[in-house]
Amino acid sequence: MSEPLVLITTDGPVRTLTLNRPAALNSFTGAMHGELLPALEAAAGDAAVRCVVITGAGRGFCAGQDLNDPDMGSADGGPPDVGSVIDRLYRPLALRIRTMPVPVIAMVNGVAAGAGANFALGCDVVLAARSASFIQAFSKIGLIPDCGGTWLLPRLVGRAMALGLAMTGDKLPAEEAQRIGLIWRCVDDAALADETRALALRLAAMPSRALAATRQALDEAMPASYAEALGIEARVQGALGRGGDFAEGVSAFLNKRAPVFRDR
Ligand code: T3D
């Protein structure tokens, strides 16, 4: 039997999905997409999962689209229908990450290039090994940033930096990525797994519904006016206020005990 292209492991409330094509730096094939999206769906539907970690096997995180994948080609042997690949495979993946009911951590263990970089950047928290790097590799093969890159990059680092990264396709070391605010943090390679586990367990113990709503509210408020953002906050906060986690959080605070959050 062939190895799974996405390894799935569970550590208490933390579900880890490991992209598993190390010989090709875990680049995306149609088959790998075919395992990844269902693995995310399964994590989203499992009430016991309260945080998801995504990482790569071997020395890389993900080198983007596998440029050898026959799924890239057009059915009639003409030029590849890249738009359809994006629509069929990357769009649902990027949207799924952004709508998970629990926090998603990208544990970037090595190079993240092309759609692999933007897949990581679309996650809620990006923790990278100091030796890792981020490459907007698209311009080198005549494409634009995809997997959410056109939306994410200027919002994370501003237009000037986004254009510089996207046009040059230069390799950005993890330390520099942290310095410019592209990622949350970079840590020593040897500490990456432990630091990620500690953060994942910490987030898993927090109110999942509020964390997912925080992501949603930030994304909604991004293009909104100040007044509209205040309206979004009132609506989202109103819904959270009716949930069990808010009652539990307040009760735990008043009774000087640790809260146990359950909402998802
Ligand atoms: O349909 C569509 O195309 C739409 C979707 C587009 C989304 C995209 O992601 S477009 C961007 C695609 N990605 C790239 O262009 C990156 C290509 N890879 C690289 O530039 C380099 O591999 C890296 C800078 C990421 C790493 O360089 P390095 O020197 O550390 O490793 P390497 O030797 O280049 O790669 C190691 C192996 O992985 C090698 O195979 P080999 O020679 O040992 O058998 C290499 O061919 C393979 N590999 C790396 N990236 C890809 C890949 N194979 C297929 N596709 C890849 N993207």
Give structural notes:
The chain is an alpha/beta fold and 264 residues long. The protein folds into two domains: 6-204, Alpha-Beta Complex (2-enoyl-CoA Hydratase, Chain A, domain 1), CATH 3.90.226.10; 208-254, Lyase 2-enoyl-coa Hydratase, Chain  A, domain 2 (Orthogonal Bundle). It is built from ten helices and ten strands. The protein has helices spanning 30-45, 82-98, 115-121, 149-157, 159-168, 174-179, 192-204, 208-221, 226-241, 244-254, and strands at 6-11, 14-19, 51-56, 60-62, 104-108, 111-113, 125-129, 133-135, 171-173, 185-187. The chain has a six-stranded mixed beta sheet, with helices on both faces. It has a four-stranded mixed beta sheet with strand order 4-6-8-9. A hairpin with a 2-residue loop joins strand 1 (6-11) and strand 2 (14-19). The two termini are 36 Å apart. Ligand T3D binds at residues 24-25, 27, 63-68, 72, 80, 82, 85-86, 111, 113-115, 135, 137-138, 141, 143, 146.
The spatial strand order of the largest sheet comes to 1-2-3-5-7-10
Topology-level CATH name of the largest domain: 2-enoyl-CoA Hydratase, Chain A, domain 1
Identify every distinct bound molecule in the structure, by name, code or SMILES.
ligand T3D
Number of helices in the DSSP assignment: 10
Mean pLDDT: 97
Work out the helicity level: 40-55%
- Which regions have little confidence, pLDDT < 50, spanning 5+ residues? none
Helices and strands: which structural class?
alpha/beta
CATH level 1 name of the largest domain: Alpha Beta
Provide the CATH superfamily of the largest domain. Answer: 2-enoyl-CoA Hydratase, Chain A, domain 1
Rg on CA atoms, Å = 19 Å
Number of domains: 2
Order of helices and strands: EEHEEHEEHEEHHEHEHHHH
